[in-house]
Input
Amino acid sequence: MKLRYYLLTILCCGVIFWLSSLQVTPRPKPVIPIDKLVHMSMYAALAGVVCVGMRRSNNTVDARKLFYIPLCFSIGYGIAEEFYQLFLPWRSFDFFDIIANSAGALLTQIFLCHALWKMPLRSATGLKQETLPCAEE
Output
């Protein structure tokens, strides 16, 4: 990836880290789980930054790598953040946050790779190997 995408990825991770470190006041459970939508949005942004950075930085990009590397990075970072919250007395580990983080990253990858860039689903799952040309900026 180009330096600017590394910096954007670090910035995105830093914002997520900062937000996950904040002390929150306990509130009654809302009917619509707004916090899960926030989790999905943050990790969708993280996966999107990594995916776009990979696509715009290489001459050719393996379709599976373009799909799975940002997805695995975002999910791994989300899991690490949840375990980090175990050490904060005002935060707690929530398995459903990991589900929301993963869903946000997965939906972004599906949108970018399959809907926007028209990458065949088979190429991301490994059934058919394809190399995609890099995107122009």
The mean pLDDT is 86. The longest strand covers residues 60-62. Helices lie at 3-21, 34-57, 63-85, 95-116, 121-125.
